[in-house]
């Protein structure tokens, strides 16, 4: 018997997040480990009158790819994925790895080839998203690997994840509409503001957001969700910031990251662990050393780090920055094959001040 919370998540994703309408095409991408959720979403898309396309990867597929593929094969873009990016109405990606460290031994140079090859594809997807032509959502299926990474039992992690997705509620769709009201309120408060100052241990950073748009992340693009974000003015970042939670990119983890910015650019980057990899990603292209996103978490139901950015960047009381590509709908114009989020935990003591008014202090909103 399928967990009823899986049915609830499929309902939220198709009825609320990407809002499938009759005749619309929806890609569902996952590994075989997420089969119960894939089937539930597949059925929900059909029930809505849509056309589901299932894209499944087998366990270990990514590792085999990087181990065996030539540079030319790594840089090849599948016509099927190109078609989806250009034509699909919706995409639902389910994070469902059974080994979150399987790419840790892959040479960074190979991963950079892939990122550079996919740059135009990512740009096109963001353009269609900004124009309202493509709706997408990234969610998660609770595999043993994610539970282990969060230092939880499998059942505890399932409860944690489904609670964060609000699918433990009697009406999850209605619950997300209520949660969206607060996130939208905070995003609206930020509109028209200019200077953002982030202060905390090892952190004193000034950003400009004049003319940029703050977007509420209210379950439409991620599930679980809970943040509001924008693309800072590209040359505005000045100062330094320390990121307290480990950050994973392309299957590799770095921790103890600290950036120093001048004229918007990362001019010094250090890490307690994984510094060489961090540097290699920042050198992927010119845009990789500039900020593409400033996000502020609002989901206080996610109270601790799990090692998964989908969850950790939503933690209420944290702020995150992403180096690399901007989301065009925010007004950001930074282009890069990279988009890597890193988290600064202000619950440890810190503040966010906007145009001289305290937005948040010690992880609690003051407005």
Question: Can you describe this structure?
Answer:
The structure is a single chain. This protein has 367 residues and is of the alpha+beta class. It has 2 domains: 4-168, Thermophilic metalloprotease (M29) (Thermophilic metalloprotease-like); 179-365, no CATH class. 32% of the residues lie in helices and 28% in strands. Strands 14-13-10-6-5-18-19-20 form an 8-stranded antiparallel beta sheet. A 5-stranded parallel beta sheet has the order 2-1-3-4-8, with helices on one face. α1 packs across α2. The N and C termini lie far apart (45 Å).
Give keywords.
367 residues; alpha+beta; globular; Thermophilic metalloprotease-like; eight-stranded antiparallel β-sheet; 2 domains; single chain
Q: Write out the strand line-up for the largest beta sheet, numbering strands in chain order.
A: 14-13-10-6-5-18-19-20
Strand tally, please? 20
- Give the count of helical stretches: 12
State the distance separating the first and last CA atoms.
45 Å
Radius of gyration over alpha carbons?
A: 20 Å
The outline comes out as: globular
What does the secondary structure layout of this molecule look like, with pairings?
Blueprint: H1 4-17, E1 25-31, H2 35-47, E2 51-57, H3 61-68, H4 71-74, H5 79-87, E3 90-95, H6 108-117, H7 119-130, E4 135-140, H8 144-149, H9 154-164, H10 172-190, E5 195-200, E6 203-208, E7 215-217, E8 222-223, E9 227-230, E10 238-242, E11 247-249, E12 252-254, E13 258-262, E14 265-270, H11 275-282, E15 291-297, H12 309-312, E16 318-324, E17 339-345, E18 351-354, E19 357-361, E20 364-365
